[in-house]
Specification:
The protein is α/β, with parallel strands linked by helices. The protein contains 7 helices and 9 strands; from the N terminus they run βαβββαβββαβαααβα. About 40% of the residues lie in helices and about 20% in strands.
Length: about 200
Amino acid sequence: MGKIFYVMGKSSSGKDTIFRELMKDETLGLQEIVLYTTRPIRAGEKDGVDYHFVDDEVLRRFQKEEKVIELRCYNTVMGVWKYFTVDDEHMDLKRKDYLAIGTLVSYEKMRAYYGEERVLPIYVEVPDDIRLIRAIDREKKQEKPAYEEMCRRFLADSEDFSEENLEKTGISRRFSNAGTLEECLTEIRQFIKEKKGFTNFS
Protein backbone atom coordinates (compact mmCIF):
# COMPACT_ATOMS: atom_id res chain seq x y z
CA MET A 1 0.00 0.00 0.00
CA GLY A 2 1.44 3.36 -1.05
CA LYS A 3 1.79 6.34 1.26
CA ILE A 4 1.65 10.12 0.90
CA PHE A 5 4.26 11.98 2.93
CA TYR A 6 2.86 15.45 3.53
CA VAL A 7 5.32 18.31 4.14
CA MET A 8 4.02 21.29 6.15
CA GLY A 9 5.39 24.32 7.92
CA LYS A 10 4.98 28.03 8.38
CA SER A 11 6.18 30.42 5.68
CA SER A 12 9.98 30.61 5.36
CA SER A 13 10.45 27.41 7.38
CA GLY A 14 12.34 25.94 4.43
CA LYS A 15 9.64 23.43 3.53
CA ASP A 16 9.87 24.16 -0.22
CA THR A 17 13.62 23.55 -0.22
CA ILE A 18 13.18 20.40 1.86
CA PHE A 19 10.50 19.18 -0.53
CA ARG A 20 12.79 19.68 -3.53
CA GLU A 21 15.73 17.93 -1.86
CA LEU A 22 13.59 14.93 -0.90
CA MET A 23 12.28 14.67 -4.45
CA LYS A 24 15.86 14.59 -5.78
CA ASP A 25 16.73 11.67 -3.48
CA GLU A 26 16.21 8.62 -5.69
CA THR A 27 16.76 6.23 -2.77
CA LEU A 28 13.42 7.35 -1.28
CA GLY A 29 11.46 6.37 -4.38
CA LEU A 30 8.89 9.15 -4.03
CA GLN A 31 6.61 10.52 -6.74
CA GLU A 32 5.59 14.18 -6.70
CA ILE A 33 2.08 15.52 -6.26
CA VAL A 34 2.18 18.91 -7.97
CA LEU A 35 -0.42 21.28 -6.56
CA TYR A 36 -2.45 23.75 -8.58
CA THR A 37 -2.65 27.49 -7.90
CA THR A 38 -4.25 30.60 -9.38
CA ARG A 39 -1.61 32.92 -7.93
CA PRO A 40 0.98 34.58 -10.21
CA ILE A 41 4.18 32.72 -10.85
CA ARG A 42 7.18 33.97 -8.85
CA ALA A 43 10.70 34.61 -10.05
CA GLY A 44 12.56 31.31 -10.38
CA GLU A 45 9.44 29.13 -10.39
CA LYS A 46 8.49 26.77 -13.24
CA ASP A 47 4.99 25.83 -14.32
CA GLY A 48 4.31 22.14 -13.77
CA VAL A 49 7.29 21.85 -11.43
CA ASP A 50 6.65 24.16 -8.47
CA TYR A 51 2.90 24.37 -9.15
CA HIS A 52 0.45 24.09 -12.02
CA PHE A 53 -0.34 27.76 -12.57
CA VAL A 54 -3.94 27.97 -13.81
CA ASP A 55 -6.92 30.31 -13.82
CA ASP A 56 -10.35 30.09 -12.20
CA GLU A 57 -11.87 28.54 -15.30
CA VAL A 58 -9.63 25.49 -14.99
CA LEU A 59 -10.51 25.21 -11.30
CA ARG A 60 -14.24 25.29 -12.08
CA ARG A 61 -13.80 22.52 -14.62
CA PHE A 62 -12.05 20.28 -12.08
CA GLN A 63 -14.78 21.03 -9.54
CA LYS A 64 -17.47 20.10 -12.03
CA GLU A 65 -15.67 16.80 -12.63
CA GLU A 66 -15.45 16.30 -8.80
CA LYS A 67 -11.68 15.92 -8.95
CA VAL A 68 -10.73 18.60 -6.39
CA ILE A 69 -9.67 16.97 -3.11
CA GLU A 70 -8.96 20.18 -1.21
CA LEU A 71 -9.10 23.89 -1.99
CA ARG A 72 -7.62 26.85 -0.11
CA CYS A 73 -8.45 30.49 -0.79
CA TYR A 74 -6.31 33.37 0.46
CA ASN A 75 -7.54 36.97 0.33
CA THR A 76 -4.17 38.62 -0.26
CA VAL A 77 -3.29 42.25 -0.90
CA MET A 78 -2.81 41.22 -4.55
CA GLY A 79 -6.20 39.52 -4.90
CA VAL A 80 -7.68 36.11 -4.08
CA TRP A 81 -5.19 33.28 -4.55
CA LYS A 82 -6.36 29.68 -4.65
CA TYR A 83 -4.36 26.49 -4.07
CA PHE A 84 -5.84 23.05 -4.66
CA THR A 85 -5.04 19.35 -5.02
CA VAL A 86 -6.52 17.30 -7.85
CA ASP A 87 -7.14 13.55 -7.93
CA ASP A 88 -6.04 12.84 -11.47
CA GLU A 89 -4.87 9.87 -13.51
CA HIS A 90 -1.28 10.23 -12.30
CA MET A 91 -2.05 8.94 -8.79
CA ASP A 92 -1.35 5.23 -8.19
CA LEU A 93 -1.31 4.56 -4.44
CA LYS A 94 -1.47 0.82 -4.98
CA ARG A 95 2.11 0.74 -6.21
CA LYS A 96 3.75 4.12 -5.51
CA ASP A 97 4.63 6.45 -2.64
CA TYR A 98 4.18 10.20 -2.99
CA LEU A 99 5.47 13.45 -1.57
CA ALA A 100 3.17 16.47 -1.24
CA ILE A 101 3.36 19.92 0.33
CA GLY A 102 0.61 22.08 1.80
CA THR A 103 -1.09 23.51 4.87
CA LEU A 104 -2.48 21.93 7.99
CA VAL A 105 -6.03 22.22 6.63
CA SER A 106 -5.09 20.63 3.30
CA TYR A 107 -3.32 17.82 5.17
CA GLU A 108 -6.51 17.11 7.10
CA LYS A 109 -8.53 16.94 3.89
CA MET A 110 -6.00 14.69 2.19
CA ARG A 111 -6.03 12.41 5.23
CA ALA A 112 -9.84 12.31 5.20
CA TYR A 113 -9.85 11.54 1.46
CA TYR A 114 -7.14 8.85 1.35
CA GLY A 115 -7.17 7.56 4.94
CA GLU A 116 -5.04 8.21 8.03
CA GLU A 117 -2.78 5.20 7.40
CA ARG A 118 -1.82 6.52 3.96
CA VAL A 119 -1.15 10.22 4.66
CA LEU A 120 1.80 10.85 7.01
CA PRO A 121 2.73 14.35 8.25
CA ILE A 122 6.20 15.91 8.05
CA TYR A 123 5.95 19.15 10.04
CA VAL A 124 8.96 21.44 9.65
CA GLU A 125 9.55 23.89 12.49
CA VAL A 126 11.74 27.03 12.74
CA PRO A 127 11.73 29.75 15.45
CA ASP A 128 9.83 32.90 14.43
CA ASP A 129 12.84 35.23 14.51
CA ILE A 130 14.79 33.06 12.08
CA ARG A 131 11.74 32.70 9.83
CA LEU A 132 11.22 36.47 9.66
CA ILE A 133 14.83 37.11 8.61
CA ARG A 134 14.57 34.40 5.94
CA ALA A 135 11.26 35.82 4.68
CA ILE A 136 12.71 39.31 4.24
CA ASP A 137 15.80 37.98 2.48
CA ARG A 138 13.65 35.96 0.09
CA GLU A 139 11.32 38.84 -0.69
CA LYS A 140 14.25 41.15 -1.52
CA LYS A 141 15.10 38.84 -4.43
CA GLN A 142 11.69 39.27 -6.09
CA GLU A 143 11.38 41.68 -9.01
CA LYS A 144 8.58 43.45 -7.15
CA PRO A 145 8.88 42.69 -3.41
CA ALA A 146 5.48 42.35 -1.70
CA TYR A 147 6.33 43.01 1.94
CA GLU A 148 2.70 43.53 2.96
CA GLU A 149 1.78 40.08 1.68
CA MET A 150 4.86 38.62 3.37
CA CYS A 151 3.71 40.06 6.71
CA ARG A 152 0.17 38.79 6.17
CA ARG A 153 1.44 35.26 5.57
CA PHE A 154 3.75 35.45 8.58
CA LEU A 155 0.93 36.46 10.95
CA ALA A 156 -1.64 34.09 9.44
CA ASP A 157 0.68 31.13 9.96
CA SER A 158 0.79 31.78 13.70
CA GLU A 159 -2.93 31.11 13.82
CA ASP A 160 -3.07 28.36 11.20
CA PHE A 161 -0.25 26.34 12.79
CA SER A 162 -1.13 27.09 16.42
CA GLU A 163 -0.27 24.48 19.03
CA GLU A 164 -3.99 23.89 19.50
CA ASN A 165 -4.48 23.11 15.81
CA LEU A 166 -1.41 20.88 15.67
CA GLU A 167 -2.63 18.94 18.68
CA LYS A 168 -6.12 18.64 17.20
CA THR A 169 -4.73 17.01 14.06
CA GLY A 170 -2.52 14.66 16.06
CA ILE A 171 0.81 16.12 14.94
CA SER A 172 3.34 15.69 17.71
CA ARG A 173 6.60 15.03 15.90
CA ARG A 174 8.52 18.08 14.67
CA PHE A 175 11.47 18.27 12.30
CA SER A 176 13.61 21.27 13.24
CA ASN A 177 15.17 23.31 10.41
CA ALA A 178 16.75 25.89 12.70
CA GLY A 179 20.21 24.37 12.31
CA THR A 180 21.69 23.10 9.06
CA LEU A 181 19.45 21.97 6.27
CA GLU A 182 21.30 18.66 5.98
CA GLU A 183 20.62 17.79 9.63
CA CYS A 184 16.91 18.31 9.09
CA LEU A 185 16.93 16.32 5.84
CA THR A 186 18.77 13.41 7.46
CA GLU A 187 16.10 13.13 10.14
CA ILE A 188 13.27 13.33 7.63
CA ARG A 189 14.87 10.77 5.31
CA GLN A 190 15.18 8.33 8.20
CA PHE A 191 11.50 8.87 9.09
CA ILE A 192 10.38 8.21 5.51
CA LYS A 193 12.47 5.07 5.23
CA GLU A 194 11.12 3.77 8.54
CA LYS A 195 7.54 4.27 7.37
CA LYS A 196 8.27 2.68 4.00
CA GLY A 197 9.64 -0.36 5.81
CA PHE A 198 13.30 -0.10 4.81
CA THR A 199 15.42 -2.48 6.89
CA ASN A 200 18.77 -0.78 6.26
CA PHE A 201 19.01 3.03 6.11
CA SER A 202 22.35 3.84 7.72
